[in-house]
Design a protein that fits this description.
Number of helices: 14
Oligomer: single chain
Number of strands: 13
Largest sheet: 5 strands, mixed
Distance between the termini: 18 Å
Strand order of the largest sheet: 6-5-4-7-8
Radius of gyration: 23 Å
Helix content: 40-55%
Length: 399
């Protein structure tokens, strides 16, 4: 038994700091580990050697700043995590290892709104199929990240709005999937996971404060403050789609009038163009036509961008993020939508906040949420199993 304050407990704490830093980043040089953890270079070197001898990490030659360095990542066979993303019209599942490598990924169409039971049935089948395809032992699953297109009550784990997912009323998605898969499941809304995915792998890499705006059948924002997702005490932070733009505007599904969503979401935007483009028009089609020069589609996308920019300006004035990342199909419109967003931000945001802000398209496209689910599982898993394996495989060198 370790005594608090003893050499062994201090050593264990240092091991945990190093493993956690590497696990969250995917890979780090030893110098980066020292900066991240605050440990000395000599201590990091000793710990990395111990973890390598125990099979917990892999060390490969690399370069940093033109100098030779050693890159440290968790062993590829130390465990796997699973990401599950429910969109309104799709299900996407990915399997990754603890070194942040995606081993398998698959997406299929699904009317998620219709039935939660059907959605979980399909998710269970797809997870099992991908695990079998990778050939990984199921006992290696360390956890699952789950994304749903709606707010999750932080205390109860219940999906918060039946107006968004009518067939999911009263469900507790994390509990349901945990009972089916038999492993820990961590749930969050799709905008938060999009933010996490872009933060770890995409356009948010390297920043500590950002807002990820997802425009699809609804509009949501994932907020990152000081490198962490901000959810609020009830889990509803980031509902930017329900900022009021016009109190006499269209009635929103939330019951209010003139919400940002009623001017930007696909369900409200597409009817403006369908009379001239047919009933099967999608946002993906609108973006494609706009890029090809269709004047109506270009005008609508510009209008949507200006409205989004009004909401982003409010975020700038309140939170002063350094970066806004636009996700969803709309991001594929590039400057056709980003330009109007920046124009509105410049008009309505405090000048000092607007000057510090960069507005970028997401780098991950439709994969942002499922990769964010992987990142969620990685961030929530504990290190005890990894460290117990290390300490039993190698004698501790106290540092």
């Amino acid at each position: 038994m370790e005594t608090p304050g003893s050499q062994s407990s201090l050593h264990r704490a240092n091991l945990e700091r190093v493993v956690r830093a590497v696990r969250l980043a995917g890979s780090l040089t030893q110098a980066e580990i020292a900066r991240t953890t605050g440990l000395s270079a000599a201590t990091v070197s000793n710990i990395v050697r111990e973890l390598k001898d125990g099979g917990t990490v892999e060390v490969t030659p690399t370069s940093a700043g033109g100098r030779r360095a050693r890159s440290v990542s968790l062993s590829g066979d130390a465990g796997i995590v699973i990401g599950v993303d429910f969109g309104h019209t799709h299900l996407r599942v990915a399997i990754g290892n603890l070194a942040h490598q995606v081993l398998a990924e698959e997406s299929e169409p699904l009317d998620v709104d219709a039935s939660s039971a059907q959605g979980f049935d399909r998710a269970e089948e797809l997870v099992s199929r991908l695990i079998a395809a990778t050939g990984v032992d199921r006992s290696k699953v360390a956890g699952v990240g789950l994304g749903v297109p709606g707010p999750i009550d932080v205390e109860s784990g219940t999906l918060g709005s039946t107006a968004i997912l009518p067939g999911w009323g009263g469900t507790k998605p994390a509990e349901e999937l945990r009972d089916r898969l038999g492993v820990p499941v961590h749930v969050d809304n799709d905008a938060n996971l999009g933010a996490l995915g872009e933060l770890v792998w995409g356009s948010g890499k390297g920043v500590r404060d950002l807002a990820y705006i997802k425009v699809a059948s609804g509009v949501g924002a994932g907020l990152v403050i000081d490198g962490k997702i901000y959810r609020g005490p009830g889990g509803t932070a980031g509902e930017i789609g329900h900022i009021t733009l016009d109190e006499s505007g269209p009635v929103c599904r939330c019951g209010n009038r003139g919400c940002l969503e009623t001017f930007t979401a696909a369900r409200y935007v597409l009817p403006l163009l369908q009379p001239g483009h047919g009933p099967d028009l999608t946002m993906e089609g609108v973006v494609r036509l706009a890029r090809d020069g269709d004047p109506g589609c270009r005008r609508v996308i510009a209008d949507v961008g200006r409205h989004i920019g009004s909401g982003v300006a409010n975020l700038c004035n309140l939170l002063n993020p350094s970066r806004v990342v636009l996700g969803g199909d709309l991001a594929e419109a590039g400057e056709l939508v980003l330009g109007p967003i920046r124009e509105s931000v410049g008009r309505y945001a405090i000048p000092s906040a607007a000057r510090q802000l960069s507005v970028l398209p997401g780098a991950l496209g439709g994969r942002a949420e499922v990769l964010g689910a992987l990142a969620l599982a990685l961030s929530e898993m504990g290190d005890s199993t990894l460290l117990d394996g290390t300490l039993s495989a190698a004698a501790p060198a106290f540092t």
